[in-house]
Amino acid sequence: MQERSYHHGNLRTALLEEAERSVVAHGAAALSLREIARAIGVSHTAPRRHFPDRTALLDALAQRGFDTLALRLTEAISAAGPTFEERLRAVAHTYVGYAEGRMPLVELMYASKHGAETLAAPGAARAAYAIPYAVIEEAAGAGELAGGLTPQAAARLVFAAVHGLAVLLSTGMIASDDTPDVVDAAVDGLLGGLRP
Asked: For labeling, which of 99, 124, 129, 176 is most exposed (least CB within 10 Å)?
């Protein structure tokens, strides 16, 4: 096999991109370092330059997923209007849009989130969650949450709604051509329960 030439740093990116394609198509359990190497045209030992084993590759892939989600959430919130409703809608649409079609990767991300603290994914997960949590905490500080509802409780409710919606859309239980309307309806319901 003729090994492709990669500039410094590009091999790691290529491995992660191919690993993501593989996980989305076949699930994390089917991921093979040897198959990833073959798919991008490098020797079967090349991945070990960046990932000593399959677990390290999966952790890096989960971290990358959380980093990408965090970036998209940050951009969406920055582009949204200043109100809690506008920012909550941005969070919901962004999360569902990210998860839809990538559910095997999202499942890997959440499995890795509970990994050992020596792994990178748990820290990346906390950083990603902190972004929508800040929106909810700010709303609580402004008196926009129902009395007795803590930011933590509100954040759990929001996450349960948007993640559940993403699962229903990804499994076909809700038609994906209705995604924007379904997300907006869910946010309307959330706002009804969250506001004073």
From this structure: 176
How many structural domains does the chain have? 2
Do 114 and 166 share a domain, yes or no? yes
Q: Are residues 46 and 93 in the same domain?
A: no
Q: What is the pLDDT of residues 86-104, one digit of tens each?
A: 999 999 999 999 999 899 9
Pair 19, 93 in one domain: no
Length of the chain: 196
C-alpha 177/C-alpha 180 separation (Å) is 8
The range of the structural domain enclosing residue 131 comes to 60-194
Cα(87)–Cα(154) distance, integer angstroms: 14
pLDDT for position 1: 41
Output the six-digit token pair for 40.
Answer: 């991008």
**Residue 125 to residue 114: CA distance in whole angstroms:** 9
Residues 64 and 46 in one domain: no
Contact 98, 142 (CB under 8 A): no
User: Over pLDDT 90: what percentage of the chain?
Assistant: 80
4 shares a domain with 27: yes
What are 20-28's contacts with CB under 8 Å, separation 24+? 20/61, 20/64, 20/65, 20/105, 23/61, 23/104, 23/105, 23/108, 24/101, 24/102, 24/104, 24/105, 25/104, 26/104, 27/104, 28/58, 28/104, 28/107, 28/108, 28/111
